[in-house]
Design a protein that fits this description.
By secondary structure, this protein is an alpha/beta fold. The protein contains 15 helices and five strands. The chain has a five-stranded parallel β-sheet, with helices on both faces. Strand 4, helix 4 and strand 5 form a beta-alpha-beta unit.
Length: 376
């Protein structure tokens, strides 16, 4: 007979002769349990899993029809075969509608019952195999998804490291702003989180903040490192760097959002910025957030010609220019960030800079000692 050779079968009927006959027929190949009513059967169903339930439809107390939803609710994989009297064929059809696999009519032929039970157990085996396959497939999908996420994260980390190295190389042309990009990335991300950016825009903000001045690679050193005030012609060249940056990043799919930050980070809320004179929400939200973070860093950082100002002075200046240079809602988000968060980010950037200088100093010492050994 098809099915598991030791499948568990629950036989439910208020006629003891029926349960006895069916139990004798199937007990050689299956583990059979009998119950004289639905009320007696339900605790048995709750105590263990049955592959098949054979139940009469019309019984004293709860009917077999009423029991079907309870069986399916407790054990969806259990297959139900109903026994119906000739006078209740409509009930048998209703049983199929409720989820029964098949039914047999009284008085029944035992060979017919054996055939129905065989098909039912085979069907139950297919249900279990299908569920097992679906579970394995789901686990495989989860595993492959996790592996893909890990690969993408590794690739993104590699991109991030490469871009940081590029930024560091560019900043060597402008010693006054060394470490500025790293700091403004930290400030921008904290402000973006407070503003409520989603994950995709957060990445655009991160990479855009890191690369915001990449267009300065096209600005001559005589202008970029000029110690005196720039002339009008020199300012024309300097103000081209956002478009230079956009052109450099053009065509790099994963940097599309970052390219908007690069192109628009000097635009102003009132339309007086450059290079396009964008106004209000025409400016990309990541560029608007970066603008506030960038200004905060510029105000609070030390320069060769002045000391950095305090948090309070920077906050007042941002308020003063809200609605003109800055998006007022972004400035509001800035004020929602606790002051100690900004201080902590600033201190971390200083520690990181000190660590970088120490590593550089150690490398120089090792190189010097190797040179001396060769010369000696």
């Amino acid at each position: 007979m098809a099915g598991d050779p030791r499948s568990r079968i629950l036989i439910v009927d208020d006629e003891p002769e029926i349960t006895s006959i069916l139990s004798d027929v199937f007990s050689d190949n299956h583990d059979c349990t009998t119950a004289g009513s639905a009320e007696e059967a339900l605790p048995l169903l709750a105590s263990g899993e049955f592959q098949l339930v054979i139940s009469d439809i019309t019984m004293t107390g709860m009917s077999g029809l009423d029991m079907i939803p309870l069986i399916k609710g407790h054990s969806p994989n259990t297959v139900v075969v109903m026994i119906s009297g000739m006078q209740t064929v409509e009930s048998a059809i209703e049983a199929l509608r409720l989820g029964a696999f098949d039914y047999v009519m009284k008085p029944f032929d035992l060979r017919q019952v054996e055939a129905v039970v065989g098909r039912a157990l085979e069907h139950q085996g297919l249900i279990v195999a299908k569920q097992r396959y679906e579970n394995q497939l789901e686990e495989l999908v989860e595993q492959r998804t996790a592996e893909l996420d890990q690969a993408l994260n590794s690739l993104e980390d590699a991109y991030r490291s490469t871009l940081k190295a590029l930024t560091a190389a560019l900043e060597t042309r402008d010693l006054e702003t060394h470490g500025h990009s790293e700091r403004v990335v930290s400030y921008s991300l904290r402000l973006g989180r407070e503003y409520g950016l989603d994950g995709e825009r957060t990445k655009a903000l991160e990479f855009g903040s890191l690369l915001h001045d990449i267009g300065k690679i096209g600005v001559p050193d005589l202008i970029l490192r000029k110690p005196a005030k720039l002339t009008a012609d020199e300012w024309v060249l300097m103000r081209q760097h956002p478009m230079h940056g956009q052109q450099i990043l053009n065509g790099i799919k994963f940097l599309e959002g970052a390219a908007r930050v690069v192109a628009q980070h000097h635009e102003k809320w009132d339309g007086s910025g450059y290079p396009l004179g964008l106004q209000g929400e025409e400016i990309d939200i990541c560029a608007r957030i970066f603008s506030v973070a960038d200004a905060f860093d510029a105000i609070t950082s030390n320069r060769v010609y002045r000391q950095g100002k305090s948090y309070y002075a920077a906050a007042r200046e941002l308020d003063e220019w809200a609605g003109r240079q800055f998006d007022p809602k972004v400035v509001e988000a800035f004020h929602r960030v606790p002051q100690h968060d900004w201080q902590e980010l600033h201190e971390k950037s200083l520690m990181k800079k000190d660590d970088e200088l120490e590593v550089r100093r150690m490398v120089e010492m090792v190189l010097q000692s190797q040179v001396e050994a060769v010369v000696g």
